[in-house]
Amino acid sequence: MVLPKYASVSYNYLTGQGRAAADVSATVNLLEIQKGALFETNNANGDSTLHLNGYTNLTLPINVPNSDISPDSFNFDNILFYLTSVTVNYYNGNIPETITQQNPVNNFYSANIQAFPGRYCNVDMRVDDGMFVQYDQFGTPSIGFNETNFLESNFPNGVEHVFKSKLADYVRFDFPGIAAKPNLSDGTPAGALYLSGDSIGISPYADSGPFELHPAPGTVYKGSFGRTTLPDGSKPPGTYTIQEPNPGDILGISQTPSLTGLFNMINVVFGNVSTFEVILFPRSADDGIDQIVLVALDAQLKATTLYLGQADLNAGTFSAHPIDQLDAVSPTGVISGTLTNLHDAAGTTVTAQAKVRQGTFTITTGGVPTGFAATGRFVVFRI
């Protein structure tokens, strides 16, 4: 398996509510996550500007060396919200004025950030102009941080003030030749499947175009994707961007980015891909409830039969359905079976789900689809 030598945890700053007339911006240059005595930081990006009353997103990473954390995954339970400065540009009558407040906020907040060695995850953090209040302090203009607005914007349900991570890197499986396909929201037939463990993506069979995330039946997030070919013929990781309606557009026409990430083809992250593979993808909870894909492949690594579903490493079971049943609440054509002979990367028998890297699957109900084996090896998408 070919993955980076670090776990990438990215702040995904989402700005803007458009409430203030003044132009409000903030400067950020320090990212930090924490678990007990372990601190991981990044200020090598230099100063980055957040336009607080514009609808933008900015993704800044902390690359945690694999050697710093568990070989399985590691949970960080604190995240820093630190701004170097906040600046308000406004007009006092016809006279332009500027107020800059240094270090207006330097707070840690509870987090649930599961960092997987070699994987990428994002943590959304909403920041806008309504979180900063202009006032006079002994005749000197100042800017204060409104923590209540910050928490209400990031946690609108008001129940749990915890910043949570989501896996943002996907593995792509092409299936242009499969007849029964799911459709994108606009009716375009899908030809590529993307799996991360946390969500499912689909797109046309192409190098660029529309992209959708389907985290649950009936829930769709729309965007676009693309990948390039270098002069030597190689292809670096592709990227995707999820868009959402721009709240500043009263006509409801324009979109604004809300999420970005990357994807790789199956043969880039897995070596020696055969004509049939069964792969489990852990989710951020890292609780043994994984995505599973069973795929028969031709010589060009295009899927000829493709099933996806859920595996439970704790119970040793799985169920999966054909790709065209992607959004079905009660899918048809379901197969199910067992997961046994659990081993770690060294081939040692293990029982803890986070230690599992390979094992044996057996299809017990639903029949054996064309191109599939009734039993054989499965692998887990972990270093």
Verbal overview:
It is a single chain. With 383 residues, the protein is mainly β. It folds into two domains: 11-165; 169-380, no CATH class. The protein contains two helices and 26 strands. Strands 1, 2, 3, 4, 5, 6, 7, 8, 9 and 12 form a ten-stranded mixed sheet that branches. Strands 13-14-15-16-17-18-19 form a seven-stranded mixed beta barrel. It has a seven-stranded mixed β-barrel with strand order 20-21-22-23-24-25-26. The relative contact order is 0.13.
Topology pattern, helix = H, strand = E: EEEEEEEEEEEHEEEEEEEEHEEEEEEE
Whole-number mean pLDDT:
91
Cα Rg: 23 Å
DSSP strand (E) fraction?
over 45%
Helix content: under 10%
Low-confidence stretches: none
Content-based structural category: mainly beta
Number of helices: 2
The major pleated sheet works out as: 10 strands, mixed
The tally of domains stands at 2
Shape: elongated
Task: Compute the separation of the termini in Å.
Answer: 7 Å
Beta strands, count: 26
Summarize the SSE layout with pairings:
Elements: E1 6-15, E2 23-28, E3 31-35, E4 38-42, E5 48-51, E6 57-65, E7 74-92, E8 95-115, E9 120-127, E10 132-137, E11 140-145, H1 147-154, E12 163-167, E13 169-174, E14 192-195, E15 200-203, E16 208-216, E17 219-226, E18 238-245, E19 255-265, H2 266-269, E20 276-281, E21 289-297, E22 303-312, E23 317-322, E24 335-343, E25 358-365, E26 375-380
Parallel strand pairs: 1-9, 8-12, 13-19, 20-26
Antiparallel strand pairs: 1-6, 2-5, 2-7, 3-4, 3-7, 7-8, 9-12, 10-11, 13-14, 14-15, 15-16, 16-17, 17-18, 18-19, 20-21, 21-22, 22-23, 23-24, 24-25, 25-26
